[in-house]
Amino acid sequence: MKADDVLVISNASKVFTMRRRSLKRVSMTAVDDVSLTVRRAETVGLVGESGSGKSTLGRAILRLLDLDGGRILFEGREIQGLNERVFRPLRAKIQMVFQNPVTSFNPTMTIGQTLVDAMRLSRHRTLKQKEQRALALLDQMELDERFATLYPYEMSGGQLQRVALARALAPEPHFIFLDEPTAALDMSIRGQIINLLLDLQRQSSLSFIFVSHDLRVIRYIADRIYVMYLGQVVETGTKHAVFESPHHPYTRALLAATLIGQGGRDEVRRAEMLTGEVTQRAHDFAGCKLYGRCRYATERCAREPQVLRAVAQDHWARCWRAEELARSGWLVKGSAANEEPLSGFRQVAV
Ligand SMILES: Nc1ncnc2c1ncn2[C@@H]1O[C@H](COP(=O)(O)OP(=O)(O)OP(=O)(O)O)[C@@H](O)[C@H]1O
Ligand code: SF4
Ligand SMILES: [Mg+2]
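That is the input. Now the predicted structure with iron/sulfur cluster docked in place:
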């Protein structure tokens, strides 16, 4: 663990076992040997199709579920297995904005009470100061102070998403797991909220894991990126490495999908897309999880397990063909970098 590491996840795994209607037990590995690090004042972008294990990883960090294997160190302390009493002081420092904010609110509390309650461990503040901070946070989220008296059911999904951000910021955390935090926001406010998060990060050295299906948002906000597929990290590296020189066929497919219709050679991008649906593999299948959907697959991919390997400095991919694919060039050189930023975003160099 390095001095500026806030969160270090090592070899995390989580298996869910469910009973089918036939009463047969089926198990699936939602998080499969994931190792991930977040440094102080850093934003890690987490991307991957639905079901790739992003939210499950977030819930494990928040101690909302126990891992079946692996370790999670937060500011140097192992948090797996800590009992509630010992974990409680850390809880304020580790926050999450849930993917579906509507269900994460207590329907019997007003928004103001919810925000004050989020500061219950902030003993250095009086109730009056907490109420003032609650109003200030609403204001930062472009919500009028009258919202403090409303109940969650009286607000729209986008407004609740902003309250969820305010609630996560309220106890002055060191780390926030942001699970699709801008998905319910109008485009007009999305850039503004993201810039606010970046400003807060600079002011108080906050660290984020930012989950988004929108790679344009990830490209804007993240310092480093982890790409997940069926519970595994298939590629990770700096934003520049992953966007400008994607080595894994899955990353290439995700990027190609976002670039279609952006001008340039769409037929090259379409060829890069995956075929078929995400499907779990049988337990005795040892090969690459992308086998069957990958245009570059060979017979070797079906029998050989793939490991995350260094493919360049600060850049890893889980595919034995990674270097060869990267040498064959990216879809359209520089296209990921030249893409227009979202409206309301400040221009950043990638
Ligand atoms: N409590 C649970 N019981 C059983 N299976 C679960 C549970 N929670 C998640 N899963 C399964 O684990 C896998 C990973 O789910 P997860 O919600 O972490 O994916 P995700 O990457 O967040 O997807 P999305 O982009 O749709 O939010 C999925 O197949 C999901 O059905
Ligand atoms: S190992 Fe084979 S199937 Fe897997 S991503 Fe690489 S080329 Fe595709
Ligand atoms: Mg999710």
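The mean pLDDT is 89.
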